[in-house]
């Protein structure tokens, strides 16, 4: 049971790291975003979704920490939970700053486009280049996220195999205890049988001695009546 719980804790920590990386990736996309506002709104929706999943996983880890038997392990996990909460607050602060910077950049870009209409094509090229760079960074981080998700699944499979092995060992131990009880009972029966056999032999010997004494007495009376 303790091994299974430790495995769940490790998996939960890995999932928290994955969501944290995804949040950071989208915040970086917001920093690099130069408009339009619809793109910023779409990125913010994704960040909100990742924050929601991250918050749920931190709560799940906190609950598992409270279920720990050892106080030292409980306190260590609660400290990890506190660190994750601080990291999430730091991400939220970075998110707000990135939004502010992005909105300022969009406003400045729109003003510049109004003042310098001739530079619109160049600015569009710059925006496309920034978007392409941002997309490349996001792709890389998503690749890392997928790799970590695969590791999480492998950890879950390993934990299931370990749990099955533990059950098999427990079943074998129960069978061994049952066989030990049967062997002990058989040993007691054999000991009892040996004692009874010794008693029977003693009785037979005494009966034979009595019989021989009787025969000798009869022979004595018949052959030597004067004795």
TrEMBL record:
<feature type="coiled-coil region">
    <location>
        <begin position="44"/>
        <end position="87"/>
    </location>
</feature>
<dbReference type="InterPro" id="IPR005606">
    <property type="entry name" value="Sec20"/>
</dbReference>
<dbReference type="GO" id="GO:0005484">
    <property type="term" value="F:SNAP receptor activity"/>
</dbReference>
<feature type="transmembrane region" description="Helical">
    <location>
        <begin position="202"/>
        <end position="219"/>
    </location>
</feature>
<keyword id="KW-0931">ER-Golgi transport</keyword>
<dbReference type="Pfam" id="PF03908">
    <property type="entry name" value="Sec20"/>
</dbReference>
<dbReference type="GO" id="GO:0031201">
    <property type="term" value="C:SNARE complex"/>
</dbReference>
<dbReference type="InterPro" id="IPR056173">
    <property type="entry name" value="Sec20_C"/>
</dbReference>
<dbReference type="GO" id="GO:0006890">
    <property type="term" value="P:retrograde vesicle-mediated transport, Golgi to endoplasmic reticulum"/>
</dbReference>
<keyword id="KW-0175">Coiled coil</keyword>
<keyword id="KW-0813">Transport</keyword>
<dbReference type="GO" id="GO:0005783">
    <property type="term" value="C:endoplasmic reticulum"/>
</dbReference>
<protein>
    <submittedName>
        <fullName>BCL2 interacting protein 1</fullName>
    </submittedName>
</protein>
<keyword id="KW-1133">Transmembrane helix</keyword>
<keyword id="KW-0472">Membrane</keyword>
<keyword id="KW-0256">Endoplasmic reticulum</keyword>
<dbReference type="GO" id="GO:0005789">
    <property type="term" value="C:endoplasmic reticulum membrane"/>
</dbReference>
<feature type="domain" description="Sec20 C-terminal">
    <location>
        <begin position="133"/>
        <end position="223"/>
    </location>
</feature>
<comment type="similarity">
    <text>Belongs to the SEC20 family.</text>
</comment>
<keyword id="KW-0812">Transmembrane</keyword>
